[in-house]
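Is this the right way to post structure tokens for a design question? Let me know if I should format differently. Anyway, here goes:
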């Protein structure tokens, strides 16, 4: 028995590890800045090279214990430490790592450094130090330029500069920044007065009300047919043998009121029964239990002297 439990525990652990490794496949290098002169600063006010990670999964992802490196021969160069709740990335969220070469500055400061003016290879390895999750070769770029995916978690890369009008440098946020929702702009252009929206909304509401009315009508008909069938069964009639025109009609309002009154009198005839006792609470302004004569001490009587 213990052997079977041990084997099952090992199988569950293997499945959990496989699921975790599969989930970490959704971790992507999203944007990189090699030489930071005027871009974002860290919590100490320093400007360092940074690497933006992106969780492309539609579920949270724990990235502690993964390794980030700039040398394929040294896969465990810098490790993201355990014990920080911020290492759990939300779904479709971003995270900045600082490539300043000093992991003692904080959880997201790494031991790697990027070389300005040169091509830099960056890789992310799983906690086993062997499984490659993602990698990218950053080409030589000018200062304050970044190498970013065209859209988060995509496949195409481009170089972005601070002077670009459409391609924005976006540390810690989406790489594809949309100023205007195209659907909203199209609706505003084709229906500036809002007449189409009004007609559509009113049509949906009245259609829903009509559908509800039909449903209630059908349910009422079904209940009426069941009531007639039960009445015929109670009278000893077979519903199959009784023609439609001879079947009893549904109860009238007077009959229903009479039945309701009879039930009310029957259920509330409690005091008329000989073997039942009803106790009703009576509210009175005065009660002998709170009288002052029972609350004050009587003065003792003195006996006359002899």
């Amino acid at each position: 028995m213990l052997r079977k439990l041990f084997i099952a525990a090992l199988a569950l652990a293997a499945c959990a590890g496989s699921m975790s490794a599969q989930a970490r496949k959704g971790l992507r290098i999203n944007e990189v800045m090699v030489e930071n002169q005027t871009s974002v600063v860290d919590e100490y006010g320093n400007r360092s090279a940074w690497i933006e990670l992106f969780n492309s999964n539609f579920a949270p992802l724990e990235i502690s214990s993964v390794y980030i490196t700039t040398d394929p021969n040294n896969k465990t160069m810098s490790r993201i430490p355990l014990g920080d709740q911020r290492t759990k990335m939300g779904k479709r969220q971003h995270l900045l790592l600082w490539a300043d070469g000093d992991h003692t500055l904080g959880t997201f400061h790494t031991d790697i450094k990027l070389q300005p003016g040169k091509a830099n290879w960056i890789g992310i390895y799983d906690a086993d130090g062997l499984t490659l999750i993602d990698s990218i070769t950053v080409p030589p770029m000018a200062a304050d330029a970044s190498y970013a995916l065209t859209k988060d978690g995509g496949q195409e890369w481009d170089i972005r500069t601070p002077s670009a009008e459409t391609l924005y440098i976006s540390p810690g946020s989406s790489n594809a920044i949309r100023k205007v929702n195209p659907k909203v702009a199209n609706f505003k252009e084709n229906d500036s007065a809002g007449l189409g929206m009004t007609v559509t909304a009113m049509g949906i509401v009245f259609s829903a009300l009509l559908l509800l009315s039909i449903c209630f009508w059908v349910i009422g008909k079904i209940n009426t047919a069941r009531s007639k069938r039960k009445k015929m069964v109670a009278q000893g009639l077979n519903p199959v043998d009784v023609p439609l025109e001879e079947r009893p009609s549904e109860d009238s309002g007077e009959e229903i009121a009479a039945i309701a009154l009879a039930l009310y009198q029957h259920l509330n005839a409690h005091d008329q029964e000989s073997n039942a006792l009803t106790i009703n609470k009576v509210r009175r302004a005065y009660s002998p239990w709170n009288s002052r004569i029972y609350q004050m001490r009587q003065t003792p009587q003195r006996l006359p002297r002899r």
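Format looks fine. Someone answered above. Worth noting: Residues 14-20 have pLDDT under 50 and may be disordered. Residues 199-258 form one domain.
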